[in-house]
Amino acid sequence: MTSIAQAVVTTDLPDRQGFHPTTRVRAGGAALIAGGALCIAGGTLHPIVDGRSHSVDALTAPLSPGAQVLLAVGTVLLILGLPVLHAWLSGRIGRLGSVGLVAYLLGNLVSAGAHLVVEVFVAHPLAADPATAGLIADDDSMLGTSAFGAVNGVGGVVMLAGMAAFGVGLLRSRIVPRWIGVLTTLGMLGFFLPIPATQFLSGFVYEAPRGVAVLALGVLMLRSPAGPSTR
Prior knowledge:
Largest sheet: none
Structural class: mainly alpha
Mean pLDDT: 89
Radius of gyration: 19 Å
Number of domains: 1
Oligomer: single chain
Order of helices and strands: HHHHHHHH
Number of strands: 0
């Protein structure tokens, strides 16, 4: 796996689709930069009304569903860019870091992706229609089902643990500035801080650390498409 990933990044020959590896890496880096920025913006703007972010009032607030769409597009870009990041790192972050990065990708797919799809395409239309607004759960979970709660819960844990392990791998490898490794390791701890749900503040605290970390990695990919070097 490592040799394949390294070959993807280091060879100067185009692949079967005609893309040079440096083009692929730069595209992946650009996706991470845009994805990180959009997640920060969407998370910061995500409506919170009376301490709830998924109530009928929040789902129909003026910034909804625009903020959620920003988050959704940002998440899609992260999902597209993370596999390219994995190849760009080409085994330099050890087994723990590599497994952590894959887990972070899967967590985004299962938890963030599914949550946002439901919020934008199901919960918002239901909340916007007075005839169906009563179907939105009163416990701020949108659907109020155990299955949906389990998907979000398990996916969230996988995403949290994966990003932390990925960050540890970055710190051990010393191939990126140390602050990026620290921010990646601690990137999702904001979700566990005992802060009240507050418009603009909560979403920024949740999304900014991991968004900045991913954005910074995307910048490094643009600057050095052949791969990172030990610092």
